[in-house]
Amino acid sequence: MAITRWDPFREVASLQNRVNALFRDFNEGESAMTTASFIPAVDIYEDEKKVVLKLEVPGIAEKDLDVSVENNVLTVKGERKFAAEEKEENFHRIERRYGSFYRAFTLPTTVDTEGIDAKYDAGILKLELKKKPEAQPKQIKVSVGKTLAA
Q: Which DSSP helix (H) or strand (E) runs through 94?
């Protein structure tokens, strides 16, 4: 009969190894499912005349942005390239995301897909989508004091 030393944390370490393996497998599967390296934040708002999207894409060259519309779906693609001015082993921390991104937005039928204006300034890509004239609100004049014919 052998005497073994009891380690109260052995089961915890075993559980931690299993959970780590689970997350590692999930992350590897997730990266295989998507081609995007990061997802830029977006604000979307509208008024009577237009719908506006503002995407946060700092550090991306204008030539690396691609905006297109097909079948009422607005697609924004781009890539933030890692400019290795220093050797990678000299970095203490790399927190910014690099690589490609892809965002797709289904447009409402009230938007005129021919009237899209794209501007890029200070790391913000602003897309203005004009609404169709028939979708814009109309003012109706109300007559006061006139009697209605029966």
A: none
pTM of the model: 0.63
What are the start-end ranges of the E strands in 22-72? Answer: 42-46, 50-56, 65-70
Architecture in CATH for domain 36-85+93-135: Sandwich (2.60)
Q: What is the rounded CA–CA span in Å between residue 26 and residue 65?
A: 29
**Please, is 74 exposed, middle or buried when counting C-beta atoms within 10 Å of its C-beta (0-12, 13-18, 19+)?**
buried
User: How do the domains of the chain map onto residue ranges?
Assistant: 36-85+93-135
Write down the pLDDT at residue 23: 74
Contact 56, 78 (CB under 8 A): no
Of all residues in the chain, what percent are helix, strand and coil, respectively (each to 5)? 20, 35, 45
